[in-house]
Amino acid sequence: MKRLSLQWRITLMTVLLIGVACVSMNLLLCFSGVHYMDAIGESIQSNTIGGSPDFFDPETAGENGDFTIVIDGAQEKFYITNWYITAAVTALSGVLAYFVTKHALKPLRNFTSQVEKVQLNNLSDMKINENVIKEFQQLSRSFNQMLERLNNAFAAQRQFTGNAAHELRTPLALMQAQLELFSAEHPDVLPETAKFLSLLQEQTERLTQMTKTLLEMSNVQQVERNERLQLAPMIDEIFTDLELLAEKKSVSLEAEGDGIMTGSDTLIYRLLFNLTENAVNYNRPGGLVRISVAQEQEKIIIRVSDTGYGIPEEFQRSIFQQFFRVDKSRSREYGGVGLGLSLVWEIAKLHGGSVWVEKSSENGTTIAVELPVHEEKDKNLIR
Question: Does the pTM exceed 0.85?
Answer without folding.
Answer: no
